Amino acid sequence: MNSICKSLCSEDGVVAKFGVTVGKMDWLQDRSSWSLASLDGKDLGNFDYVVATDKIVASPRFSGLTGRPPPLDLLLFPRLSVMVQDIPVRPCFALMVAFSEPLAMVPVHGFSFNNSDSLSRAFCDSSKPGRACVPPNRQTWVLHSTTEYASKVINNIGPRKPSVDALAKVAEELFREFQATGLSIPQPIFMKAHRWGGAFPAIAIGGDDKCVWDKSTKLAICGDFCASPSIEGAVLSAMRGASKIMGCLNFPSGL
């Protein structure tokens, strides 16, 4: 997913800052611009427009992760509070598995599970552009759990970071279900599970616009949580947010 961001960062005029979390967003009414600061209080500059893509930009969950108030103070933007204050999410466990050779008995690069209690999707990660394995005969797959399975595991172990043993158990259970497809899945040479606690938004807050746009402060909030819980939803939301800004700049957006 980060290939899009990498490509954008290479464009002329783009300045990317890595390893920096925006900790505060202040709207300067007299300047009609935004002032941004990092979590440690460092001034990040003033900006005419801001695009926020993190669904916890105004959520109490930001405080739980950082110990700081959310960057966007909804007391100053009451018209946005109902929409972005706390967006519910559906958790997921992801399992990466690597095989010493391609899965010859699987004729597709991705499929869904309709009647599984634990698995929802399987994707051949090696089939994606730029994801070829070394050596070339190896193949990697990513398995996604169902929301119900992930919720059950998280309820049992609590909200804390899963232990190595807990993740190993998840990996075994998900892989066993993968083998139960009857597609002659061999034992992998590598297997690792990861908890994706906020994987998929449970609602879409953007409506027909597919983004949240506040013209008076030139703030666009975009993401899959504005359109649909998918890469496509995130891209469509970003395009709609960009079109709002381009409209203010009197550029034709084509959207």
UniProtKB/TrEMBL annotation:
Source organism of this protein record? Panicum miliaceum
What protein is this chain from?
A: Amine oxidase domain-containing protein
Q: Where on the tree of life does the source sit, at the highest rank? A: Eukaryota
PANTHER family in alphabetical order: FAD/NAD(P)-BINDING OXIDOREDUCTASE FAMILY PROTEIN, FAD_NAD(P)-BINDING OXIDOREDUCTASE FAMILY PROTEIN
